[in-house]
Every structure is written in C-alpha cells, then in structure tokens.
Design brief:
The structure holds 2 protein chains of 2 kinds. By secondary structure, chain A is of the alpha+beta class. The termini of chain A are far apart. Chain B has 6 helices and no strands. Chain B is an all-alpha fold. The radius of gyration of chain B is 15 Å and the shape is globular. Classes of the chains: A alpha+beta, B mainly alpha. Chains A and B meet through α1 and α2 of A and α1, α3, α4 and α5 of B.
C-alpha cells in the first residue's frame, strides 16, 4: 500500500505541475511569439504524420489520373487549350496595361514596382482544429516559403502563411477570427478592414451606417498593411444591417476564393530587390 | 510477470496511429463527430499499464497534437494530461467493470477533459455555439469497445507489460 500511495502522490504532483505548465504555455503562445521555434522543432515529429495521412489520397488521385482513358484526357486537354487561349488573349491586354501602368508610375514615383514572383503549392489532405480556419500546404521553407506570405487561388485571396517548416506550411484563411485584412470597396473606393467570423464568411468592420455600400459590392485588397498587394479580389457583400443607434453598420461578405475546395493555391513571394 | 521495457515502440505506434486519425480528412458533416482518438488510446494504456503510461506521456502526446492541429501549445496537452490523471485514479476499478460501465466512465472522462479546451476557445473568442461539442464524446463512447478489444489484442500479441 505504501507504494500505491507514493504512485498516486506523484501522479497528483505531475498533473498540478503540468497543468500550470500548460496554462503558462498557452498564455505565452497566445500573447507573444516566443514559441515559434518550439513549434518548428516539434514539426519534425509531425511532418511524417502529415505525409502518411495525405499519401493514400494523393496516390488515389494519381491512380485515377493515370488510369483515366485517353478519351477523357483528350477532352480535358482540348478544354485546357481553349481556356489557355482565352486567358492568353486577355493577358495581352493586361500586359499592355501593366506596361503602361509601370510607365506612368515611374513618372510619379521613382521606386518601381516589380512584377510579383509566385509559387504554386498544393493543399495537403490533413485537417486542423475544426474551430480554426487553417489549411496545410505542401511547400515549406525549403521551397522559399516564409511566414506572412499572401496565398491566393484563381478567384481571390485565401489567406496568409502563419507557420512554416521545411516541407510544409500552415495558412490562416481569411475567415479565421484572427485574420484582419485591409480592403477597399471596388465601386466607391472606401477603405475598411475585414475580419473572419470563424465560419464561412467575413465581417466588414468600421463602415459608418451612412456609408454608400450595397449588397453585391465587391471588396478588393487595398494594399495597406503591406502584406497583401493591392487589387486582389476578397469577397462580395451579402448582408447589410443598418442600426441607426450604432456608429457602424453590420456588414457581412462572402469570400470569392474557394477557401476549402481549392486543390492548388498560389503563394506570392516578396519581390527580389 | 517479466518486466520488459522493450516494446515501447508498440505503444508509441498506437499513439502515432491515433494522431494520424486526428488529422484524417472527413466530410464536413462528420467533423464534429470525430472521436477523441488520442484520448481513447491514452485511457487504454493508462488503464492497462499505469506504471508506463501516465500523466506526462499524455501531456507529451497532447503537445504533438497541438502542433499538428494548430491549437495553442498546451491546450490539448492539458486535456490529455487530465484524462490520464482521471484514468490513473480509477484504473483498478475500471479494469473489472463490464464494458458498458466502462463506456459510461469513458464518456465522462472525455467530456471533463474537453472542458479546458472549451474554456480556452471561449477565451480566444470562439465559444461553443451549440451542443455540438459533445458529439465527439458520444462517438468516443461508441467506439470504446472496439478500441479496447483492439488494443488488448495488440498488447497480448506482443506481450507488452
């Protein structure tokens, strides 16, 4: 019985010490960023877990691609060629506009804007905590990803990278409650900020009730804050509630990017200086 | 009973597998129903081998789960350390209970160990909006007989003690 008593006492001591350790860790992790290095070193343990989990799904995709018949491939190829053609035609105009823009800009400000460098990354089939809006990408610091890079898909802004290890990185989606994004209403030019609501949409903050804004207005990044370059699509306003007793209108927007369904995303690398 | 500190890999392997199940993609309707895999595996080992797996092992596994799922460092660690502690306190009784009574106890352990998790989420600004947070405890309870039988077969086959 003596031994039993000792064992219990030590378990109780441990749970008390470890609970205190947990609370201290959580506070430090939430308030400051000292623990990023601890996370990065634990990533060595979790990277194999992530790769093993996403392996069968990646293999299934590869198999279905390899085994799809020639007819399907030809059809897809034709469709992609058409799409590529259309995009190239559009791009001609865009290139010209960009050149003109650069020319005009160089007249007013000496610091030239460089064209953005990008990196294509795949979304890994692993899940994060369901209460947080996060995705994991299969590119890491080895491929040049760093913390705070904008992530986009073909339709708009997805989020930004918040932690990076050697071969993967974690992206905070714009719908996460901690993700603030400086935006501009495309139609009127009003500057404001969006914050995720933790589910599927964005809250548009700090617009006075008298602001000219209607359902269907498009939001684009404003470039303020320095993380996201200006002009990328963010969302479309879906709900406006004006309560005259309150200073700001309650506005919701739906993100244009396919946040949870994109298979491939684009990372914007900082321009080489 | 020969004490063999070997076969630690066999215990670690079960935790590794449970961590994989934690990040396995699920259809969105099933997300809330994902059982607390790591908690279940931890409860089994604390019950079967309390001298080898305990509060500190639970805390360590929880820390890895924190990094894996992106929660605050220490959040799941606290939950798992708590469930290990509760199991250690009652492991002798738990061993002789019939399976349905075990299931009931497991349900309560999982629910209680989830509470600090919910508080932390509340403090971070996303408190639980509905009763959904209990679904994972229900699915854990339903899965317990299989986990228990499976891990016992694994332990006996390898004669881990």
């Amino acid at each position: 019985m003596h031994q039993l008593f000792e064992q219990r006492a030590s378990a109780t001591t441990r749970i008390i010490l470890l609970s205190i350790a947990s609370i201290v860790l959580m506070t430090v992790d939430h308030r400051w960023h000292y623990l990023d290095r601890v996370r990065a070193s634990l990533n060595v343990v979790i990277a194999p877990i992530r790769y093993v989990v996403s392996f069968p799904i990646a293999t299934a995709e590869w198999l279905s691609y390899t085994l799809s018949n020639q007819q399907q491939l030809l059809e897809e190829n034709r469709r992609l060629k058409e799409n590529n053609f259309v995009l190239n035609v559009r791009l001609q105009r865009f290139d010209e506009l960009q050149q003109e823009n650069l020319r005009l800009r160089s007249l007013i400000e000496p610091a030239q804007r460089f064209p953005e460098r990008t990196l294509l990354a795949g979304v890994m089939d692993v899940e994060m905590d369901p209460y947080l809006r996060r995705i994991v990408l299969n590119k890491g610091s080895h491929q040049g990803v760093s913390v705070g890079m904008p992530v986009l898909d073909a339709l708009g802004v997805i989020g930004k990278t918040i932690s990076v290890d050697v071969l993967s990185s974690v992206v905070m989606l714009v719908t996460d409650v901690d993700h603030m994004l400086p935006v501009q209403i495309k139609r009127t030019g009003h500057h404001t900020v969006t914050a995720g609501n933790g589910k599927e949409s964005l809250n548009v903050l700090y617009l006075p009730v008298t602001t000219d804004v209607v359902v269907g207005d498009e939001l684009v990044t404003s470039g303020i804050g320095g993380v996201f370059p200006a002009g990328y699509a963010v969302g479309v306003i879906t709900k406006i509630q004006r309560d005259t007793g309150k200073p700001f209108a309650i506005i919701e927007a739906k993100p244009t990017a396919l946040l949870n369904r994109s298979r491939d995303v684009l990372l914007l690398l900082p321009p080489k200086s | 009973m020969t004490h063999s500190p070997q076969h630690s890999w066999a215990i670690i392997a079960t935790f590794g597998l449970s961590l994989m199940l934690v990040v396995m993609p699920l259809p969105s309707w099933a997300l809330a129903w994902r059982p607390e895999w790591t908690t279940l595996v931890l409860i089994y080992w604390c019950m079967a081998l309390p001298h080898r797996v305990g509060v500190a092992s639970g805390w360590g596994v929880g820390l890895i789960q924190d990094v894996l799922t992106g929660t605050l460092l220490g959040q799941q660690a606290l939950s798992l350390a708590l469930s290990a502690y509760m199991t250690l306190q009652i492991h002798r009784r738990l061993r002789i209970y019939p399976i349905y009574q075990q299931m009931l106890i497991i349900f309560f352990i999982v629910v209680i160990s989830e509470l600090p998790n919910l508080w932390v989420r509340g403090l971070q600004g996303h408190p639980p909006q509905n009763i959904e947070f209990i679904y994972s405890s229900v699915s854990s309870l339903i899965l317990w007989p299989w986990i228990f039988t499976g891990l016992r077969m694994w332990r006996r086959a390898l004669q881990i003690s």
